[in-house]
Amino acid sequence: MASLPQYRNALQPQTTLHEYRIEQVLGAGGFGTTYLARDTHLDKPVAIKEYFPSDIAMRAAEGTVQPATTEREPDYKWGLDRFLQEARTLARFSHPNIVRVIRYFEANGTAYMVMDYERGEPLKNLLIANPRLPEAQLRRLAGPLLDGLRAVHAAGFLHRDIKPDNIFVRTDSTPVLIDFGSARNALGGETRALTAILTPGYAPLEQYSPDGKQGPWTDLYALGGVFYRCLTGTQPPDAVTRMRGDTLADGLAKAASAYSAPFLRAIGWALALDEKKRPQSVDAWRAVLLAAASGPAVPKAPPPAATTERTLRVERPAPLRLAPSPTKRSWLPLATALGVALVLGAFALAINHYTRPADAAPHDEGRFRAQVLQQFRAADTNGDGYLSAEEMRRFPFLAKEFARLDTDGDGRISLPEFEQARRAQLERRLAKRTD
């Protein structure tokens, strides 16, 4: 049996920080240590992150943290200021897919941020057991992650370090963005090699240079890298290596048998080396990533039973050929294909209305979920990721059943609850047609 890791620079169990009592180390990296602690006032577990840049800091016998040398003191203080800035920014968020900072404070010559303790595990651990995740599961992760990232960008902030380690998956399978990279970005180039600051495969080219222009496209590249890892089972090639010989398209092409071509193309778009050729916002990428077909090519259905009714048949469009990251030039066939798909989808719905359900075209799950997401976001006027009773009034029938739809009893409707209600409505309509 493997022994537990020993964290020699960590605070000892039973150490107290204000009303918090340290219980154990949850993990440690080059810029900090995270502890499981107990809030002795509220008697509940919390996670506490301590600023501890191990390359330039040391812990004294009494537990205080200080720069290892006087030469490193300016770097240490600069990183400390950025750590506190990150804590202040995160404390403003109350979003289900962003780590929640309850409070932050300075003590022991360093700083701490206290966060909700979440039960689950990092996506990195899930990928050890299941190196490749199905497209349906990736879509379920993508929506909430993009919701959280959109809120971060709307506040004028970037994550800067999205990777499987920094996506925490709760026991109910919902994801949380954790461990923002502002403090380590502040120390980049001054204290460590860039390859130690960055995570190859998930960091775009602009993060390798202090003059690189970073923006929402920087985080989207990293998230695209996460999906690449999830669907290929391999680490995405790092940006510098891709400059010499790009194998990204080959990796995506090998996944074409298990994932839809539009979904793969959307991931390739986010992973474009040139930041100008990537989606420039979460909304731009979401529109392509989550509106794509929900799976690989569908096998042909068996011939319909003989019927006296006259029916029309619409063939599924041929799968789009996978291409490298879309450019302005490659948007034309993509837009054309999406337009054809929408026209055919509307035509199939019209056929479905005038024929028996047994002969109708199957329900398009991808389109349904995209419509539900669009409705939810339009109703979510305050952008908190939930619908209040007031916001639900735009759906009169559902508003009457608010208490029943609020399955977790938190006084608000989440996206999964809203989707479940919309799905039930659709199923009732289809059932009436069969009567």
Structure description:
With 435 residues, this protein is an alpha+beta fold. Among the domains are: 102 residues, 2-Layer Sandwich (Phosphorylase Kinase, domain 1), CATH 3.30.200; 193 residues, Transferase(Phosphotransferase) domain 1 (Transferase(Phosphotransferase), domain 1, Orthogonal Bundle), CATH 1.10.510. The protein is 39% helix and 13% strand. It contains 15 helices and eleven strands. The strands form three sheets. Strands 1-2-3-4-8-7 form a six-stranded antiparallel β-sheet, with helices on one face. A three-stranded antiparallel β-sheet has the order 9-10-11. It has a two-stranded antiparallel ribbon with strand order 5-6. β7 and β8 form a beta hairpin. The chain is globular and about 75 Å long.
Largest sheet: 6 strands, antiparallel
Look at the structure and name the CATH superfamily of the domain at 118-301 and 318-326. Answer: Transferase(Phosphotransferase) domain 1
Q: What proportion strand?
A: 5-15%
Radius of gyration: 25 Å
Spatially, the strands of the biggest sheet line up as 1-2-3-4-8-7
- Write down the CATH class of the domain at 118-301 and 318-326: Mainly Alpha
Helix percent reads: 25-40%
Q: Which residues form runs of ≥5 with pLDDT under 50? A: 186-196, 294-363
Tell me the span between the first and last alpha carbons.
61 Å
The dominant shape is globular
Annotated CATH architecture of the domain at 118-301 and 318-326:
Orthogonal Bundle
The quaternary structure here is single chain
**SSE succession:** EEEEEEHEEEHHEEHHHHHHHHHHHH
Mean pLDDT: 80
Strand count:
11
Tell me the structural class. Answer: alpha+beta
Q: How large is the count of helical segments?
A: 15
Write down the CATH topology of the domain at 118-301 and 318-326. Answer: Transferase(Phosphotransferase), domain 1
